[in-house]
Amino acid sequence: MNVSKKDEDSGNLGIFYHLDKTTVLQEARVFNESPIIPRKCRLLLTKIIYLLYLGEPLGTKEATELFFSVTKLFQSKDIALRQMVYLVIKELSTIAEDVIMVTSSLMKDMQPKSEVIYRANAIRALCKIIDASMLPSVERFLKAAIIDKTPSISSAALVSSYHLFPAGKDVIRRWANEVHEAINSKPASLVGSASSYLTSFSTGASSYATQPSTSNINQYHALGLLYLIRQHDRMAVTKVIQQLAGGGRGGFGSSSNVLRNPFSYCLLIRYAAKILDEDPNSRQQMYELLEAWLRHKSDIVNFEAAKAICHIKDVTAKELYPAINGKFVFLSSPKPTQRFAAIRTLNKLAMTHPTAVQPCNLDMENLITDQNRSVATFAITTLLKTGNEASVDRLMKQITGFMSEISDEFKVIVVDAIRSLCLKFPSKQAVMLNFLSGVLRDEGGYEFKRAVVEAIFDLVKFIPECKEAALAHLCEFIEDCEFTKLSVRVLHLLGVEGPKTATPTKYIRYIYNRVILENSIVRAAAVSSLAKFGVSVGDVEVKKSIKVLLTRCLDDNDDEVRDRATLYLKLLEDEAGAEKYVKDDSTYSLSALEEQLVQYVSTLEATEKPFDLSAIPKITKAQAEAENTRPRSIDLNTTSQTLGSVSATITPHVVNTSISTASRDVTTPTPTGLVQQHSYAPKLAAIPEFASYGELFTSSNKPIELTESETEYVVSCVKHIFKEHIIFQFNITNTLNDTLLENASVVMQPEPDDVSLEEVLVLPAPKLAYDQPASAYVVYKRINPEEYVLGSFSNTLKYIVKEFDPTTGKAEEQGYEDEYQAFQVEDIDLLAGDYVLPTYLSDFITAWDQLGEDGQVVETFALTAMSSLQDACTKLISLLGMSDVENTATPQYTSLHTLLLSGTFLGGIKVLAKSRMTYAPSSGVTMELKVRSQDIEISRFMIGAIA
Amino acid sequence: VNLTLYTTTAVILLDGDGNRILSKYYGGTGRNVYPSAKVQKTFEKGLFEKTRRANGEIILYDNHVILYRNNIDVFFYVVGSAEENELILSSILNAFYEAVSSILRQQVEKRAILDNLDLVVLALDETIDDGIALETDASVIVSRVSRPRTDTTDIPITEQTLIQAYQTAKERFAERVFKGV
């Protein structure tokens, strides 16, 4: 018998090795044969599944035909065949059409009297093929199945309902009671044996007695479904959590607990964490539950609880303590998965709470050499975040041995971590630089090398002490660099930084070597770099040798290289030209340029004239970099200070605009706001009357509309604050195509008639043609510079109207000569916020503590009119004219929020504000506002802005 | 945080050369992150490269947490979203692996899997239903997988008797040879 069995088997062998779709589809004729041969059919069904799981595409028509021939197999009573039929039906149901036709056959099988083994399969297959409209007709069966004593049937019904829920919400919602009952079902081991006894009794000689489940996983399915039904009712969810959490502390694992399945506790933990996040009032209660779950006997559960606590948004060190304590055990677990899970959570936590993770440092160091690369990488990057200065040396040593073993992807993570570490501990730069230059010599792909080169660039930029050493390493790197892009970047940097060093000549050799050995792109870059030495180094000898070198480049066989060499040789003779083309590294503001170009292309009339490049504001290199690196500096947290020191070397005027543009970028992300900011300062500077007022301090965020947009004349106003003067700039647009306005000015009347402001200048707009906006200005001087005047102004537009013939394009000579027309526009308020320049701040807490309570003013306000915290935040930001920091402009909760604001008051006085606010529908927003600044008077003044 | 029951993105079985033995990606339109056969293949290829030599059991790849186990020439993968509880995925993988191992009488290798493919795919179907973990008790999974009956009605009488005759003849022959020696 043995031999024959083997023969038969080897006939089947290899059957799946070379499987062809057409053959299988042809073989499907077997399904139509009578009598059905179950074994053969099951084999063919397996082939179909195999094809699908291999990813063989099946057309709709093929699938439909196949589907209906498969349904013929319902005639066979063979259990083993039937189970496979269900699987095939499920898999085909998503491809084939009209699958709904077999509903009745399936319904028969899910009746309680049918065989237990495939009743569950029938339920799951049925729910795959029906749609929401048929749900009511199977509702009765599914409800019964949910509370069935056999766990597999209950699970099948629950999981299927779960899949159907999005389509059949209304029907499934009615099953909440049954789902509840399923959660509270008795342990399966008790009923399981009884039911299998019953089935074997009733069906006679059924050989399929299902093993009683010990996992109780149907509770997990029931809980998941119950949450779907109740998810929008927070009270109900809270109640479920409380009921199922068990009898309080220490009660876990006792038999009195309803839930016995670990997965379902994970769900419960997630629900509890969500409520904790959303509802501050339940925080204490939910935290206690989470904390108790840390001691659950199942690893899955206590890990989930620890993770949930680590992810609480504003978690305190005290709350974190028990969770992190629990993770110690996982870190030294023999199972890689547990170590991975623990270190990954800690890694994430280290970004926000590095000190809380510090107690785990010792355990984490053991993981640096972990077999699992992911674990090792997480351990290293976490340690780099939590480690103190003293441990850096040791850590770097360990990493050095480890780097050669890991893949590029992980190397990049490590290099990035080290890069931020360099900036955090500048005194360790020598160790870091050695490490970076070491890995630079290792084998590696472009992304990895780029990460290292950029890290060294950062060192050059921010840590002056290591500049020479870093440049030397880069020189060495380009000697043997396979990546053109990187060579070019390094050559550029050498050109910028090299001339500033003590011995510029030593870099020239390296650069000239490139001219001899490299491809044309690198050669061109090397020529530009050489030219920078020639221009920037004072030494005549150096200049001479550069000339010699450049002259040699004139014979290069590449156009670009020759052109550059020729240009630079000329510029070396011409000081002024060199100043303009080589030394000047300012560039156009790219965002402004883009905006202008889009406008230019989109308006037809504009294209008649050439594009006016001079209207685009120029920014210096440092400013451009500040804008580019700003998002990163938020992450690194430390670079911002160094960045600040870089921009401080530019003229104060530029600093002002650069900061204001950068910070306005945060408050108003619209490109227009940014462009306007760029254009104000040069525009105002061009008006000679304003020259004596000094530097522009700040301008209003965006123009205030003083008219409706559809009136004859559209007027908006921008307030510019100078040291003692306030300029009101009125932008006026004439929307009538048959009139021409002349001598248009705005008459401002302070209300109440304030003596502390003196009108010093009114500058009319000489001519207002149709749709060509022009500006009129009114200047006030603050008589007492110590007093920051607030108030309101009523405004009237005055002008002379002339008839204008749009066809001839000529204005009538005689208009309403000398007869001024008046046009009333809306009032303007001068607010406290107008005196403040919004400035971004990366580390609010430190700055807040530094200012101290001496200059603090606190007041509480009840803002009954506010309908949400978001409203209050927006209003507060605009009233105070400050910039929000740490992303606090958008409240996370609906009922509680803290808004942090930062700004600079006229005269360069730092102002910070912290506003804690609560919201209740009955009383509106209640807010406690704390303002700190170097001058308490200013704090008082700012508080006064809220009234 | 995942508040749903959907934990598993895919289950993949690859052979020792990284070729697909079978793959099941869960979720129809919308939930499925790897909708086409092409992206699935690329994903599997990259995943195999990362895991073939490493003797871990978990990896973060392509923004997914992936638990894996290998034996001789088979790799089992359970793919979950990046934020999923690693231990939950681990117990799903273990349930499936143990079930397959028990079905194949501890002979977990490519040939055995292909020879018993019907049992293996049914076991998978009993472990995960469209991304939801259906059962984590390997013995329950095994008990819910039906085996084809070697019922006599399937094999025609004549054929069966022939086999029996051959069998008897062979036994007799063997006996005689034995005695002769």
UniProtKB/TrEMBL annotation, chain A:
Question: What is the name listed in the Swiss-Prot or TrEMBL entry for this protein?
Answer: Coatomer subunit gamma
Q: Name one Pfam family in it.
A: Coatomer_g_Cpla
Query: Where primarily located?
Result: cytoplasm
Q: Which GO terms describe its molecular function?
A: structural molecule activity
Question: Could you read off the lineage of the organism from its UniProt record?
Answer: Eukaryota, Fungi, Fungi incertae sedis, Mucoromycota, Glomeromycotina
Q: Record keywords: Phosphoprotein included?
A: yes
Clathrin/coatomer adaptor adaptin-like N-terminal domain: which residues?
Answer: 21-574
Q: Which family does it belong to?
A: Belongs to the COPG family.
Species: Ambispora gerdemannii
Q: Which UniProt keywords apply?
A: Cytoplasm, Cytoplasmic vesicle, ER-Golgi transport, Golgi apparatus, Membrane, Phosphoprotein, Protein transport, Repeat, Transport
Q: Which Gene3D superfamilies does this entry report, sorted A to Z?
A: Coatomer, gamma subunit, appendage domain, Leucine-rich Repeat Variant, TATA-Binding Protein
- Subunit field text: Oligomeric complex that consists of at least the alpha, beta, beta', gamma, delta, epsilon and zeta subunits.
- Listed GO CC annotations: COPI vesicle coat; endoplasmic reticulum; endoplasmic reticulum-Golgi intermediate compartment; Golgi membrane
Q: Which InterPro entries match?
A: ARM-like, ARM-type_fold, Clathrin/coatomer_adapt-like_N, Clathrin_app_Ig-like_sf, Coatomer/calthrin_app_sub_C, Coatomer_g_Cpla, Coatomer_gsu, Coatomer_gsu_app_Ig-like_dom
**PANTHER family given for it?**
COATOMER SUBUNIT GAMMA, COATOMER SUBUNIT GAMMA-2
How does this chain sit within the bilayer?
A: Peripheral membrane protein
Q: Where is the Coatomer gamma subunit appendage Ig-like subdomain domain?
A: 679-829
The UniProt record lists the Coatomer subunit gamma C-terminal domain at: 833-945
Where does the protein end up? Answer: Cytoplasm; Golgi apparatus membrane; Cytoplasmic vesicle, COPI-coated vesicle membrane
| Keyword Methyltransferase attached | no
Q: What Gene Ontology terms for biological process does this UniProt record contain?
A: endoplasmic reticulum to Golgi vesicle-mediated transport; intra-Golgi vesicle-mediated transport; intracellular protein transport; protein secretion
From TrEMBL, chain B:
Q: Give the matching CDD domains.
A: Zeta-COP
* Record's function text: The coatomer is a cytosolic protein complex that binds to dilysine motifs and reversibly associates with Golgi non-clathrin-coated vesicles, which further mediate biosynthetic protein transport from the ER, via the Golgi up to the trans Golgi network. Coatomer complex is required for budding from Golgi membranes, and is essential for the retrograde Golgi-to-ER transport of dilysine-tagged proteins. The zeta subunit may be involved in regulating the coat assembly and, hence, the rate of biosynthetic protein transport due to its association-dissociation properties with the coatomer complex.
Alphabetically ordered keywords of this record? Cytoplasm, Cytoplasmic vesicle, ER-Golgi transport, Golgi apparatus, Membrane, Protein transport, Transport
Instruction: Using the record's annotation, list all stretches that form the AP complex mu/sigma subunit domain.
Output: 9-147
Task: Tell me the superkingdom of the source.
Answer: Eukaryota
Taxonomic lineage from the root: Eukaryota, Fungi, Fungi incertae sedis, Mucoromycota, Glomeromycotina
Quote the subunit structure annotation.
Oligomeric complex that consists of at least the alpha, beta, beta', gamma, delta, epsilon and zeta subunits.
Q: Note whether Transport occurs among the keywords.
A: yes
One example of a Gene Ontology biological process annotation: intracellular protein transport
Q: Name one Pfam family in it.
A: Clat_adaptor_s
- This chain belongs to the protein called Coatomer subunit zeta
UniProt-annotated location(s): Cytoplasm; Golgi apparatus membrane; Cytoplasmic vesicle, COPI-coated vesicle membrane
Membrane topology label: Peripheral membrane protein
Q: Would you tell me the Gene Ontology cellular component terms?
A: COPI vesicle coat; Golgi membrane
- What is the first-listed, main subcellular location in coarse terms? cytoplasm
The similarity comment for this entry is: Belongs to the adaptor complexes small subunit family.
